[in-house]
Amino acid sequence: MANNIHARVDLADVLRGFAVMGIILLHSIEHFNFYSFPDTSTQGALLNFTDRAIWDGLFFAFGGKAYAIFALLFGFSFFIQHDNSRMRGNDFRLRFCWRLFLLFIIGNINACFFTAEILVMYSLIGFVLVATCRLSTPSLLLLSAVLMLQPVAIYNVVRAALDPAYVTPSIPTGQYWAAAFEMQSHGTFWETVKVNLVDGQIASLAWAWDHGRIFQTAGLFILGMVIGRQGWLLRSSMKLWGRILAFSLIVFFPLHGLNAMLPGFIENANVMKPLGIILSSLSNLAFMFILVSGLFFAFYSTKRLSRLLSRLIPYGRMSMTNYVTQSIMGSFIFYNWGLGLHAHLGITASVGVGAVLFILQYAICKWWMGTHHHGPMEWLWKRATWIDRNPFMKQS
Question: How confident is the model at residue 44 (pLDDT cuts 50, 70, 90)?
Answer without folding.
Answer: confident
